């Protein structure tokens, strides 16, 4: 055990494997990163003491809680959405930028950089929309030793009412102009943080790019009201009986963030190095953002929920997955999924899948049946024990049949053969059947099925070549965008 | 209603019994109930609902707990099962709803349906809300119900919801039958049964207590009511038929259980022997342990595989320290005024299923209390009619089979159209929930039959 050889043979990787272990180091708009996991500008990065503990836990970087003229916060600042017993599936805040003096934040940046020179410290900045104010804060943040600057053009509450935050991000001209002012002064990379509270994220992204931004980060939080108390009729977070729209984040927003990340990365006029933000809580989430082109990811809600320690699995899990997939570096898989996101009109209309229910795994809950009847295309049936396929039996008829059944408690001495009766095997009549001829391959049954791999969607070989809507239109098979709808009506 | 003292206030809890018979399955608090409710898959045509004799819409009441609609949840339960609170505690759910849960089929714990049901029912009581049903507009019709156990109560509730008068007659001073007097206190406390019946009585049920209906009485009720429901349960527990059975210290399981539940009995002597291995025997044996016995035996003339107790009841008894003696048969009771011991012979089962004594295997098991639990008789003699019933009565002609009243399972109607029946006297002795289901079907059946009789069908 004491010898080096002994410990290596026990580590599960073997001597040679250890050398081949992938690396999480990367470069993001010129900034050297020991790993892609940064804490987003938020309460977890409020002060130097916190950030140093976060670095000790394994975070590769931190974007300082936005620095600007100190504000006054309200009491009662956060609220959340719980989902079926899980806490904080969606998280909302009405907290403003840092309430600490600029000078204190800057002194602490200097202190953190002195003690952790290899870790990334980004100064998030927000000041009034004046050229000299931006020049001044840029100079001071860089003098303090920040590795880069993140311009907070995204904060959706409070600051936006004062002409800052998302009030800038929502107006492309302001976005471009202020980015330009910052670039006049900045010596470090400038990252523009985008708001999702806009109809097309590519518009402010393009503006930031025109203004000279070195990188982007997205998304900031989404305007939200998390809920209304049904006893008091007051929204939350409750500030003396009132509330205000806040910024929504956490696991619930990840799909929205992924879409916006993809939009930016698929558009040549907006594409820049991107730091992905929005609902990232583990290495899987991080890998998805990177597959859509992000170089780093930023985390807030998960760290607020569980603490800095979550980064340990983020590193470990991502490294293990990279090793399994044969990726040596982040760059090896960054953006790999971008070619797989297309416009709808480019999808293959001749691709056909159908649902297959694997009877050996089916537990007989019949959720697929009711989902298909009520939510899809009425092609799953409960007729396995019928003499012939019966597609006329409706859910109402099935339930009525059960209501008429007389059930009794099985009592061993009264009901011979009932003791030791097992419920381990699903009765055949409870296993639904898919009418494959009518199945449209919508996936719904496989999505509601609680048992992994019990319903699989399988490709039907129709022996037809790839054909998209776009191609059909080009061939003149369809005259306009609404042609198919029109033709069914005529 | 008259100025009757509410049923739960008519009894005084014995502190000793309360202390020794705490909840076997403690209640959920909200933070435990909601995640458990959310674990429910919400099956379509759910197996738990099918398995429940009263067909409670289990997924619906569970989803209402998850959404915080607790009054709606209780209403869903009560709509199917007016004794939903008792059943949540007394039902052998392992062989009913929870036994049918699909979770068993992929290595997951079944949903704790009983505890969720109790959670919803407790919430209804705590809210102080009335029973969520009103009696129907009075029809002028009336039904006499013999026995005030679960079958009659369920039947009465259906009748009242349809505006039919319900007169319940019971020999005991309090309603509920075995639901009140016969279920282990750690499952269903006596006061909980009464609380539930108090709520049910908001429908305007007329109780006639301490009224034993004999043949003449029944003939009279047949004449004064539009229909009669027989919810008379089973008769006395069988006797062993051996010498010494008259000694002090020989009792039966139902008397023992009713005794401690009503407070008449607070301790038992050191050595208790329970004869018989059904669920009631187990209840009596565990009660004996909790009432202070230091050694409790259950003995049975056959083997463990043939015992009629549910497997989980057997496990519970072993857990409480009850010892089991298999393949022994009592041949006599020893004592001198009071019981000293039980004479036993070892027996063996033969190929044809009969039992033969083993030679020279007699021995004596010392005992201070012998509790018989070897099955209940039927009321066949009573139902076969008596001279006093007179020529106008038809109940003496009700068809019986092995002492059980034969009914149409869907309506509860007997071979004599005016008589309906349900519960143990028809099904041979099952669970509270079976009696409730029988009573419910009979109540609907009676209303349907009367509707036809009175031109409303």
From TrEMBL, chain B:
InterPro entries noted in UniProt: DPD_II, FAD/NAD-bd_sf, FAD/NAD-binding_dom, Helical_ferredxn
Leading EC class: oxidoreductase
The molecular function GO annotations come to: glutamate synthase (NADH) activity; glutamate synthase (NADPH) activity; iron-sulfur cluster binding
Every copy of the FAD/NAD(P)-binding domain together lies at 142-439
Its EC number is 1.4.1.13, 1.4.1.14
Source taxon at top rank: Bacteria
What are the UniProt keywords, alphabetically? Oxidoreductase
Q: Which SUPFAM superfamilies match?
A: alpha-helical ferredoxin, Nucleotide-binding domain
Q: Which residues form the Dihydroprymidine dehydrogenase domain?
A: 19-127
Q: Does the keyword Glycosyltransferase apply?
A: no
Q: What is this protein called?
A: Glutamate synthase (NADPH/NADH) small chain
- Origin species, per record, is Tunturiibacter lichenicola
């Amino acid at each position: 055990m004491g010898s080096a050889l002994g410990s290596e043979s026990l580590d599960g990787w073997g001597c040679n494997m250890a050398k081949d272990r992938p690396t999480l180091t990367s470069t993001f708009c010129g900034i050297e990163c020991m790993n892609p996991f940064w804490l987003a500008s938020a309460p977890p990065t409020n002060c130097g003491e916190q950030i140093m503990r976060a670095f000790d836990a394994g975070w590769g970087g931190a974007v300082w809680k936005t620095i600007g003229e100190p504000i006054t916060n309200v009491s009662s600042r956060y609220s959340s959405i719980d989902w079926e017993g899980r806490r904080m599936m969606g998280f909302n805040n009405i907290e403003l930028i840092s309430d600490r003096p600029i000078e204190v934040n800057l002194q602490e940046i200097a202190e953190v950089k002195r003690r952790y020179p290899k870790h990334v410290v980004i100064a998030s900045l927000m000041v009034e929309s004046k050229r000299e104010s931006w020049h001044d804060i840029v100079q001071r943040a860089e003098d303090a030793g920040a590795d880069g600057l993140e311009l907070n053009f995204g904060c959706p509450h409070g600051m936006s009412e004062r002409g800052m935050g998302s009030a800038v991000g929502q107006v492309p001209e302001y976005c471009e102009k202020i980015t330009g002012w910052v670039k006049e002064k900045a010596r470090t990379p400038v990252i523009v943080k985008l708001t999702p509270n806009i109809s097309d994220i590519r518009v402010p992204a393009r503006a930031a790019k025109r203004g000279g931004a070195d990188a982007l980060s997205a998304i900031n939080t989404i305007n939200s009201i998390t809920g209304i108390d049904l006893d008091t009729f007051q929204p939350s977070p409750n500030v003396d009986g009132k509330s205000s729209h806040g910024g929504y984040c956490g696991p619930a927003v990840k799909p929205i963030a992924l879409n916006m990340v993809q939009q930016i990365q698929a558009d040549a006029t907006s594409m820049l190095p991107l730091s992905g933000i929005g609902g990232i809580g583990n290495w899987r989430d991080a890998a998805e953002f990177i597959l859509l082109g992000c170089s780093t990811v930023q985390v807030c809600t998960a760290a607020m929920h569980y603490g800095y320690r979550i980064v340990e699995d983020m590193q470990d899990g991502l490294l293990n997955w990279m090793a399994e997939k044969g990726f040596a570096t982040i760059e090896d898989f960054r953006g790999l999924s971008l070619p797989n996101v297309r416009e709808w009109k480019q999808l293959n209309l001749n691709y056909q899948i159908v649902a297959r229910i694997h009877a050996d795994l089916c537990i007989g809950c019949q959720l697929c049946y009711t989902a298909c009847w009520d939510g899809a295309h009425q092609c799953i049936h409960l007729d396995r024990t019928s003499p012939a396929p019966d597609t006329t039996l409706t859910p109402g008829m099935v339930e009525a049949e059960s209501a008429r059944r007389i059930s009794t408690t099985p009592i061993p001495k009264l009901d011979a053969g009932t003791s030791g009766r097992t419920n381990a095997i699903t009765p055949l009549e409870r296993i639904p059947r898919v009418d494959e001829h009518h199945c449209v391959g919508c996936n719904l049954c496989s999505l509601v099925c609680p048992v992994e791999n019990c319903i699989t969607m399988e490709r039907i070989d129709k022996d037809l070549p790839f054909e998209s809507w776009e191609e059909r239109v080009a061939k003149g098979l369809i005259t306009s965008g609404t042609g198919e709808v029109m033709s069914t009506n005529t | 209603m008259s100025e009757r003292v509410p049923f739960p206030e008519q009894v005084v809890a014995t502190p000793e019994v309360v202390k020794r018979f705490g909840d076997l399955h403690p209640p959920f608090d909200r933070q435990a109930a909601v995640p458990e409710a959310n674990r429910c898959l919400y099956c379509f045509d759910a197996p738990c609902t099918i398995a429940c004799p009263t067909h409670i819409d289990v997924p619906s009441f569970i989803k209402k707990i998850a959404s915080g609609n607790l009054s709606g949840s209780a209403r869903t339960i009560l709509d199917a099962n007016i004794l939903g609170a008792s059943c949540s505690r007394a039902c052998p759910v392992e062989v009913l709803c929870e036994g049918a849960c699909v979770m068993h089929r992929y290595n997951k714990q079944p949903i704790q349906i009983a505890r969720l049901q109790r959670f919803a029912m407790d919430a209804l009581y705590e809210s102080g809300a009335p029973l969520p049903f009103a009696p129907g507009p009075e029809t002028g019709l009336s039904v006499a119900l013999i026995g005030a156990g679960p079958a009659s109560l369920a039947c009465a509730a259906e009748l009242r919801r349809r505006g039919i008068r319900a007169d319940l007659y019971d020999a005991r001073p309090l309603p509920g039958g075995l639901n009140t007097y016969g279920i282990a206190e750690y499952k269903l406390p006596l006061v909980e049964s009464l609380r539930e019946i108090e709520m049910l009585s908001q429908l305007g049920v007329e109780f006639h207590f301490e009224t034993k209906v004999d043949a003449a009485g029944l003939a009279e009720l047949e004449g004064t009511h539009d229909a009669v429901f027989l919810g008379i349960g089973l008769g006395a527990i069988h006797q062993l038929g051996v010498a010494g059975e008259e000694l002090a210290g020989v009792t039966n399981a139902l008397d023992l259980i009713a005794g401690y539940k009503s407070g008449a009995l607070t301790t038992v002597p050191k050595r208790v022997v329970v004869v018989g291995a059904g669920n009631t025997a187990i209840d009596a044996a565990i009660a004996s342990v909790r009432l202070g016995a230091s050694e409790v035996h259950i003995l049975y003339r056959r083997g463990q595989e043939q015992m009629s107790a549910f497997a989980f009841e057997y496990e519970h008894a072993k857990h409480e320290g009850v010892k089991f003696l298999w393949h022994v048969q009592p041949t006599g009771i020893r004592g001198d005024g009071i019981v000293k011991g039980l004479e036993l012979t070892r027996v063996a089962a033969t190929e044809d299923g009969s039992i033969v004594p083993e030679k020279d295997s007699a021995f004596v098991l010392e005992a201070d209390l012998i509790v018989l639990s070897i099955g209940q008789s039927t009321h066949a003699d009573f139902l076969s009619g008596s001279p006093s019933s007179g020529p106008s009565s038809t109940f003496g002609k009700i068809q019986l089979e092995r002492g059980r009243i034969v009914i149409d399972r869907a309506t509860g109607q007997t071979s004599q159209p005016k008589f309906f029946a349900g519960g143990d006297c028809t099904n041979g002795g099952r669970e509270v929930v079976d009696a409730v289901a029988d009573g419910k079907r009979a109540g609907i059946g009676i209303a349907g039959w009367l509707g036809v009789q009175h031109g409303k069908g």
